[in-house]
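Severity: low
Component: inverse-folding endpoint
Summary: output formatting inconsistent between runs
Steps to reproduce: submit the following structure tokens with default settings.
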């Protein structure tokens, strides 16, 4: 293999454009706004193979820090695994995954990834094993309150979100810490219309209403109020159920079931999964990179 490996595409305009082109072709997404808004930091490290100035394959390291009931968990999530169709069947993804494992395995408590269905037989070759996540839900009744949808195009509202993010999610058993950038990957794009300020509770909630289900992705505040009381304030009149995108700290009070997502399977590197197995939690949806 005579291709060039680099971790430094972020500041190279030509390579970054090529990276975005491959990401758009593969996943339908671009990291350009993520970069231009200053959210692409050293917590997101692409391992990219280059051929004649073109990104032909990639696997990225996402450095994440979680707290599990007060215990800090240092995680590496592998993502953005992609290969240009003209360069497939050359073992490029294998090379990149092996390189990442060799460089990061001893620097983290857990290494994991989310795989789509067509590669479920690929990742076990590297020692990754399937893991089960559990998701909590509860019946709710919508109630009225002082709720303001934040405008993510306004600097003042982004600053408000950042200020409350530093309070973390006191209702979550497994919280992602110190990664406002990844939060904004969502809140400046697919979740930009899902961010609310709850004046009555002095909190920010990220949630979406669809049909009869409210999905609560995250809550940032002091933790002084009832979780159900808070989510009911952003529920539209037709909502009957709230589904949580994180594991509530008091999850025994909620209905919990195995999380089954279409075309998504969690794999954790064997030997790095001891704290997760039989824990009945989920990685917060907004921590998926």
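Observed output (run 2 of 3):
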């Amino acid at each position: 293999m005579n291709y060039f490996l680099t971790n430094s595409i972020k500041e190279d305009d030509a390579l970054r454009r090529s990276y975005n082109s491959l990401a758009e072709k593969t996943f339908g997404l671009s990291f350009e706004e993520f970069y231009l808004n200053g959210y692409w930091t050293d917590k997101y490290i692409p391992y990219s193979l280059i051929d004649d100035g073109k990104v032909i394959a990639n696997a990225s390291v996402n450095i994440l820090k979680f707290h599990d009931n007060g215990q800090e968990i240092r995680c590496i999530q592998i993502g953005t695994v992609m290969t240009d169709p003209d360069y497939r069947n050359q073992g490029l993804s294998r090379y990149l995954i092996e390189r990442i494992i060799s460089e990061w395995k001893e620097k983290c408590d857990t290494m994991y990834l989310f795989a789509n269905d067509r590669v479920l037989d690929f990742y076990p070759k590297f020692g990754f094993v399937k893991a089960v996540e559990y998701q909590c839900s509860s019946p709710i009744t919508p109630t009225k309150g002082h709720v303001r949808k934040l405008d993510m195009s306004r600097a003042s509202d982004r600053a408000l979100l950042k200020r409350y993010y530093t309070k973390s999610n006191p209702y979550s058993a497994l919280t992602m810490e110190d990664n406002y950038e990844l939060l904004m990957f969502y809140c400046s794009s697919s979740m930009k219309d899902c961010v609310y300020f709850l004046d009555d509770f002095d909190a920010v909630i990220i949630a979406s209403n669809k049909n009869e289900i409210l999905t609560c992705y995250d809550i940032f505040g002091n933790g002084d109020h009832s979780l159900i009381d808070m989510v009911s304030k952003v529920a539209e009149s037709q909502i009957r159920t709230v589904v949580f995108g994180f594991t509530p700290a008091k999850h025994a009070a909620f209905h919990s079931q195995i999380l089954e997502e279409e075309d998504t399977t969690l794999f954790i590197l064997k030997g790095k999964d001891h704290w997760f197995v039989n824990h009945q939690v989920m990685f917060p949806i907004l921590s998926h990179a």
